[in-house]
């Protein structure tokens, strides 16, 4: 028997093996058609809200909740792994060298002074580069 949900929602069955939501209840919303082994009309009541289910005759197909849920699960999965370039899998910025090796000793001394790095008076250019690179970043 087929019934249209007129108000609220209705849970009928479970998602099958192989479905991303296996074991969860299949929930039908307002307007969807349920193919049920139970006569859902018995749950209708005479009240201000009216009946909950409408019996459907003819060959109108039931709502394919399994297919709908598969598509929803696929979209959720795509959104979860979508890479907009800002995440851990985004494009990596190229590390630009500090060009310290191309500076002269006077330029290295000036830079060290600006950065607050103490250089010994008889330092070589290679030692100055190493000391500047190893110095902690200024706060």
Number of domains: 2
Radius of gyration: 35 Å
Roughly what percent helix? 25-40%
N-to-C CA distance: 74 Å
Could you give the order of strands across the largest sheet? 4-1-5
Question: In terms of per-residue confidence, which ranges show pLDDT below 50 for 5 or more consecutive residues?
Answer: none
Number of strands: 5
**Biggest sheet record:** 3 strands, antiparallel
User: Helix- and strand-based class?
Assistant: alpha+beta
Order of secondary-structure elements:
EEEEEHHH
Mean pLDDT: 86
Strand residues, percent: 5-15%
Helical run tally? 3
Task: Write structural notes for this entry.
- The protein is an alpha+beta fold and 139 residues long.
- It folds into two domains: 80 residues, no CATH class; 35 residues, no CATH class.
- 27% of the residues lie in helices and 14% in strands.
- The protein has three helices and five strands.
- A three-stranded antiparallel β-sheet has the order 4-1-5, with no helix packed on it. It has a two-stranded antiparallel ribbon with strand order 2-3.
């Amino acid at each position: 028997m087929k019934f249209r949900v007129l108000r609220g929602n209705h849970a009928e069955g479970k998602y099958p093996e192989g479905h991303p939501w296996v074991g969860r209840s299949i929930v039908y919303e307002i307007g969807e058609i349920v193919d049920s082994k139970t006569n859902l009309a018995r749950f209708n009541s005479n009240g201000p809200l009216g009946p909950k289910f409408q019996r459907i005759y003819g060959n109108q197909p039931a709502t394919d909740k399994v297919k709908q849920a598969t598509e929803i699960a696929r979209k959720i999965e795509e959104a979860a792994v979508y890479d907009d370039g800002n995440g851990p899998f985004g494009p990596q910025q190229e590390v630009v060298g500090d060009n310290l090796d191309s500076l002269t000793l006077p330029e290295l001394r000036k830079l060290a002074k600006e950065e607050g790095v103490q250089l010994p008076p008889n330092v070589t250019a290679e030692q100055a580069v190493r000391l500047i690179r190893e110095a902690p970043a200024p706060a």
